[in-house]
Each structure stands twice: as structure tokens, then as C-alpha cells.
Amino acid sequence: MESGILYIRLIISIINLTILTYLIYAFARKYREIKSEFTLGFLLFALALWFRTFFAAPVIKIFIFGISAASVVDPYRLIADVFELFALGVFLYISTR
Known about the structure:
Elements: H1 2-34, H2 37-56, H3 58-63, H4 69-72, H5 75-95
């Protein structure tokens, strides 16, 4: 069960990082076109979320920081990751309309 939660969190983290990478690319491209502070704000927000998601990913915690796998396997963090995935999906949908 614990390894299942770990793999699910890993997959969700990869999806979240992929969405955020696309958003960063899209906002950077849009900022180069129109030089809007609003777009710059979205770009910085997406960058901050990317770093937060990267350093919160289970694999990074285990291999880079040496945190035990038992502390990474937490069903409540899985719920938070799922909500983040949903929110990023909505953000991606709105940003690409």
C-alpha cells in the first residue's frame, strides 16, 4: 500500500511539473510579446509553484535530501497533490483558451 501511494504521488508530481513547465513557457513567450506586469506575475507564480512541486516530489526527497521513504508516504500529501493537479488543470485550461 505504501509503495502504491509513493508511485501515485510520483506520477502526479511528474504531471504537475509538466503542466507547470508548459505554463512557464507560455507565460514567458506571452511576456516577450506584450511586456505586461500581469503576465510577469503569472510567470513568477508558475516558477514558484514549479520549484515547490519539484522539491516536494517524493523522489527528490528520498534521493537528494536522504529523507526516508516512510516519511514521504502520507495519504494526506497525496490528497494535496491531487488538488494541486486539479487546480493546475483548471489554470492550464483558462490560460490556453
